[in-house]
Amino acid sequence: SAVADLLLSVDGVTVDYSGFKALDAFSMTLNRGETRVVIGPNGAGKSTLCDTIIGRVRPSDGRVIFRGEDISRLPEPAIVGRGICRKFQAPGVLPMLSVRENLALAARRDRRWWKSVGIGIPAGDRQVIEETLELVGLAERADIPGGQLAHGEKQWLEIGMVMATGAELLLLDEPTAGMGPAETSRTAELILGLGAARSVLVIDHDMSFVEQLGAPVTVMHQGRFLKQGSIAEVRADPDVAAVYLGH
Ligand code: ADP
Ligand code: MG
Questions:
Q1: What is the end-to-end Cα distance of the chain in Å, rounded?
Q2: How far apart are CA 64 and CA 58, in angstroms?
Q3: Do 147 and 141 form a contact (C-beta atoms < 8 A)?
Q4: Which CATH architecture has domain 2-245?
Q5: pLDDT for the residue 193
Q6: DSSP 147
Q7: Where are the chain's structural domains?
Q8: pTM
Q9: Predicted pLDDT of residue 245
Q10: Residue 54 Cα, ligand 2 centroid: separation in angstroms?
Q11: Ligand 1: residues whose CB is within 6 Å?
């Protein structure tokens, strides 16, 4: 049923920065296994939406429901523990560690990397790590320090790190930032290859990327819900056009 498929519900969420509403009674839902793209001009509130879902920012009104539970008052580590993981707009790959070690840390969900590195990779994580290396196309680069990767490869490693946590809901904030067309296409393929076991909320404003993903689109503007539909529907919408032309 529709209710059983519902994974995430953002329900009338307002985020208030001293009177300025970065989110203004914003609502959206995401089903199990669904990939959805959130677009909107700069400052629309897209990153604030991710911050709120992951518990970094507290809504002054509304709720975030994940798997039927109100998570909007939980601290970030508890939300991560429930199965949500976020990739930030700026890459957070640890430059001195190899690609494989970066994935190993993510698989342990352990930020105390200096402890983890000495211990080595637990057997239980090895399969996850090798599968992830294949999925993000970095198997050949597994032993290279993260800092030596090309920009696009770093982004793919980060998507891999988010996957390796085993989270059911992945939040990807501008995964194609700074990429050229070839890298952008590869990123779309990679996200489409994640399969139905994951739900993905992708934030981006690169329309060719959004088209390649072919996923349903939610449009935000000034912290509010503006429109929702297929990419073609959203493109044809006069309100959406007005928002982007006015930008
Ligand atoms: P987007 O990711 O869509 O570009 P953001 O969510 O980053 O938009 O920001 C939405 C609005 O909230 C912007 O106008 C931004 O300046 C403002 N904003 C974001 N974070 C803060 C903050 N910590 N304090 C005050 N205003 C903020
Ligand atoms: Mg942003």
A1: 40
A2: 10
A3: no
A4: 3-Layer(aba) Sandwich (3.40)
A5: 86
A6: G
A7: 2-245
A8: 0.90
A9: 67
A10: 14
A11: 17, 20, 22, 40, 42-48
